[in-house]
Amino acid sequence: MHAMVLHEGTAKLRYEDVAPPTCGPEQVRIAIEACGVCRTDLHIVDAELKDPVLPLIPGHEIVGRIVQVGRDVDGLAVGQRVGVPWLGRTCGHCYYCEAGRENLCDAPGFTGYTLNGGYAEECVADAGYVFAISGDADPVGLAPLLCAGLIGYRSYTMAGDAQRLGFYGFGAAAHILAQIAVWQGREVCAFTKPGDNAGQDFARATGAIWAAGSNEAPDTALDAAIIFAPLGALVPTALKAVRKGGRVVCAGIHMSDIPSFPYADLWHERQIMSVANLTRQDGEAFFPLAEKAGVQTHTTLYALKDANRALDDLRKGHLNGAAVLVP
Question: Domains in the chain, start-ordered, CATH in brackets?
Answer without folding.
Answer: 2-147+278-326 (3.90.180.10), 150-274 (3.40.50.720)
